[in-house]
């Protein structure tokens, strides 16, 4: 965000707060400074996202329970051994664990791992050269497929492939695009490395999940909307510290925010019951008790298979004991919970816009045990 966009966004959000609460800019700045003094991880836009201006005086005493987005990478560095994070960064490695330990994951139809010298005992076809992948895409009979890089972030390189068209040797996407097979392999699968993509890590081709019928009715989409489940664990104890449903909207194939004009919405999951609270979107002051596209009630919606989903997440988390914080993407399908992936560094801002911060007493204790207060001085200030 350049400086001009920064100040435009600042003015726009400040005006929203003034309209909603009557607080002028001076009052807002005073509250921001007070917030920053109590919790140095928070910044200007956290004041708007976390709706600090809406908190009562009593709730503001819990300001040290929040974590600003600036420390989300530090969280992973403090809590997760760098020697143990490969399953969270490489989906191929994750599926090796899942196959061995019976973690419920999407069915993989094919793996593409360029330059690999051996064929791993995994379900699906194992492809090692661009020629093998090109030939397989033409011969495959399982459609639709969800294609995604083994190493990527923010849904970069993800495609929902509906079919192969022999007449023009093209892959047809769910939204009707036609991608020449050789061009797809060359320009997408073998695209140059970037900050969110590694060509040498390969690609996955998975069967498209079938969301539970209640979920389809709620969102109006058959695309997968995941619940982000954050688990903290240490010395055999586990705690789910947040669960937020990323409710997909429109024709998007991913619940990562892609279409800013439309924008997905997020709804908190009540951990004991699995019922949703009203959803929110970005910096908006209003909430969404009703889904804006379908008219179905979000607030009070019961997540299907919730007890089973919680047990599945906790069981899978125990497989990675050196990852003390884990960000799981949980899908609720017609046949039960499915764990798409585990993340090492996960976004934390959207998890905390419902009047409660991410830090629980147990979470704070884990941070103090594993963190270095000299390197990260904010630990002692907000966790002690």
Write the layout of secondary structure elements.
Blueprint (H helix, E strand, L loop, with lengths): L2 H19 L3 H14 L5 H6 L7 H4 L11 H8 L6 H4 L1 H11 L6 E5 L12 E3 L2 H10 L5 E5 L9 E7 L4 E4 L4 E3 H9 L13 E5 L5 H7 L7 E8 L2 E11 L17 E4 L37 H12 L7 E9 L2 E8 L17 H10 L7 H6 L1
Helix pairs in contact: 8-9
Structural features, described:
The chain has three domains: 3-70, no CATH class; 81-85 and 212-343, D-amino Acid Aminotransferase, Chain A, domain 1 (2-Layer Sandwich), CATH 3.30.470; 107-207, Dna Ligase, domain 1. It is built from 13 helices and twelve strands. The chain has helices spanning 3-21, 25-38, 44-49, 57-60, 72-79, 86-89, 91-101, 130-139, 181-189, 213-219, 306-317, 361-370, 378-383; strands at residues 108-112, 125-127, 145-149, 159-165, 170-173, 178-180, 203-207, 227-234, 237-247, 265-268, 325-333, 336-343. Helix 8 packs across helix 9. The protein is globular, with a radius of gyration of 22 Å. It starts with a helix and ends with a helix.
What are the main properties of this structure?
single chain; 384 residues; alpha+beta; D-amino Acid Aminotransferase, Chain A, domain 1; Dna Ligase, domain 1; 3 domains; five-stranded antiparallel sheet; 13 helices; 12 strands; globular
